[in-house]
Amino acid sequence: MARIKKNDSKKTASVHKELQGLDLTINEFGEIVGNKNIDEINAFLGRHVTDRKLEDRAGDFGEKPEDGQ
Q: Given this model, what pLDDT does residue 28 score?
């Protein structure tokens, strides 16, 4: 019977260059723990991910433009 090789080296996921070094883990309480500030991650997502719910609406965040502007 062949031995199963265990790979103890930690693989890193390929991420966008702005998120290099991002490390997210889940602790024993189910909380997501990361080494980057959540505001930085939200700003990145705001720049690079479109919200499908707001795609068909006018304005930056889906608000309708007021008359006279």
A: 95
